[in-house]
């Protein structure tokens, strides 16, 4: 095993931006139309085709999309929405935006995804929706979740922040739930720097979101540009400022055109990691899906810490000392002050999520990684573990 130390850090995440993206953004800047307009409409059409849905609605973030989906579903005060504690806070805080209560269901510690059987246990008369999260790009058990939703007349709003290009039993994730919200943040598999997309086949949900995402005006600026009375509009409901710009959409169109190429680049690194770590008793490699497609947004290993002479946190620091940036996805939500003080959650409430949290490490995974990068990461993991 080599003892070499790499010059320069290997980042955990890095966007894959080429000349096509730069040229597309410059073209929009030169056009004079920078905000929501024709590029956004084109991005929506192409993304809907890619996912296989009737409607794709561009928004300013996945968080915004989740909020709009909850509003479209009629979620409000005194309602409950079931989601996972093992996610980024945005998944849950949007529930709080509506005045509803986030109710957490524990996870399967081996997949990091929400457990359908615990969802069932948490359903009450106040429950109105479920927000599953496809952690790292691994599809949840959609079939079981749909059965629960059908039994209790619940709306399913998928948090698909990690799941661009993921598939479940022949369908794209994003075409299965009542509504889904994708993230195009800078670290995601498809990026617009900031941004998101809501997908749905439900006409009523789509019409509602299309209206309220941009101040609930009956005509947006681009639509008014095509009319005689360009200055006139009517505000017909309570709305929000959640629109996407054409600058972002131009970037998104280029990213969408190479979505499968970026997946293949990620998959090559994943395969190298799998092969290197699968026989190591100190490491549990992430689960894949047999009847579908993992998007591989993140590569999350779990350390068998009882076999190591260092803690998880010490492992991450040691990797950084060797110029490999690692991360932790995620700190369980019920560990955070806000959820403890507002909703009364405590440590110990979700043992599977807590057990996973103590063991997980996210290794670098992005299309910019070279074969040499991947080899160095593997060597470094083995070297740190052997200390």
Spatial order of strands in the largest sheet: 1-9-8-5-4-2-3
| Alpha-beta content class | alpha/beta
> Oligomeric status of the shown chains?
single chain
Average pLDDT, rounded to a whole number, is: 96
Main β-sheet description: 7 strands, mixed
Number of helices: 14
User: What percent of the residues sit in helical stretches (DSSP H or I)?
Assistant: 25-40%
Low-confidence stretches: none
Calculate Rg over CA atoms: 22 Å
Write the element-wise H/E pattern from the N-terminal end onward: HHEHEHEHEHEEEEEHHHHEEEHHHEH
Q: How many strand segments?
A: 13
Broad shape: globular
Q: What percentage of amino acids are in beta strands?
A: 5-15%
Note the gap between the termini.
Answer: 13 Å
Quick structural overview:
The chain has 387 residues and is an alpha/beta fold. It is 39% helix and 13% strand.
Task: Describe it.
By secondary structure, this protein is α/β, with parallel strands linked by helices. The chain contains 14 helices and 13 strands. It has helices at 19-31, 38-51, 62-72, 89-97, 116-122, 142-152, 203-212, 221-225, 246-257, 259-277, 312-321, 337-343, 351-357, 371-385, and strands spanning 55-59, 80-83, 101-104, 127-131, 155-159, 167-168, 171-172, 179-183, 196-200, 283-284, 292-293, 299-303, 360-363. A seven-stranded mixed β-sheet has the order 1-9-8-5-4-2-3, sandwiched between helices. A three-stranded antiparallel β-sheet has the order 7-6-11, with no helix packed on it. Helix 1 runs antiparallel to helix 9, helix 3 (62-72) packs across helix 7 (203-212) and helix 10 (259-277) packs parallel to helix 14 (371-385). The radius of gyration is 22 Å and the shape is globular. The mean pLDDT is 96.
């Amino acid at each position: 095993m080599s003892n070499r130390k790499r010059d320069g850090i290997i980042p955990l995440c890095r966007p894959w931006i080429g000349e096509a993206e730069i040229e597309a953004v410059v073209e929009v800047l030169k056009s004079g139309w920078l905000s929501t307009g024709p590029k956004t409409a084109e991005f929506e059409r192409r993304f809907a085709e890619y996912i296989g849905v009737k409607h794709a609605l561009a928004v300013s973030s996945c968080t915004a999309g989740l909020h709009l989906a909850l509003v479209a579903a009629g979620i409000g005060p005194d309602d409950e929405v079931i989601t996972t504690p093992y996610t980024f806070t945005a998944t849950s805080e949007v529930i709080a935006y509506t005045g509803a209560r986030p109710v957490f269901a524990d996870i399967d510690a081996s997949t990091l995804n929400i457990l359908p059987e615990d969802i069932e246990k948490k359903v009450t008369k106040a429950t109105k929706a479920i927000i599953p999260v496809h952690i790292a790009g691994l599809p949840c058990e959609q079939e079981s979740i749909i059965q629960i939703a059908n039994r209790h007349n619940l709306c399913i709003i998928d948090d698909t922040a990690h799941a661009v290009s993921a598939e479940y039993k022949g369908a794209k994730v994003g075409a299965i739930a009542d509504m889904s919200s994708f993230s195009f943040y800078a670290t995601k598999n498809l990026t617009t720097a900031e941004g998101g997309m809501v997908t749905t086949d439900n006409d009523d949900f789509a019409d509602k979101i299309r209206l309220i995402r941009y101040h609930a005006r009956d005509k947006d600026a681009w639509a008014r540009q095509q009319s005689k009375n360009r200055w006139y509009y009517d505000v017909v409901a309570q709305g929000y400022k959640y629109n996407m710009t054409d600058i972002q959409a131009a970037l998104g169109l280029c990213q969408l055109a190479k979505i499968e190429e970026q997946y293949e680049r990620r998959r090559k690194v994943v395969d190298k990691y799998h092969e290197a770590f699968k026989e190591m008793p100190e490491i549990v490699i992430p689960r894949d899906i047999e009847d579908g497609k993992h998007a591989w947004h993140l590569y999350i290993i779990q350390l068998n810490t009882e076999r190591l002479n260092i803690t998880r946190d010490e492992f991450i620091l040691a990797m950084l000392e060797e110029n490999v940036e690692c991360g932790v996805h995620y700190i369980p939500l019920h560990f955070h002050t806000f959820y403890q003080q507002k909703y009364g959650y405590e440590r110990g409430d979700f043992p599977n999520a807590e057990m996973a949290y103590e063991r997980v490490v996210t290794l670098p995974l992005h299309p910019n990684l070279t074969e040499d990068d991947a080899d160095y990461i593997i060597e470094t993991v083995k070297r740190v573990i052997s200390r």
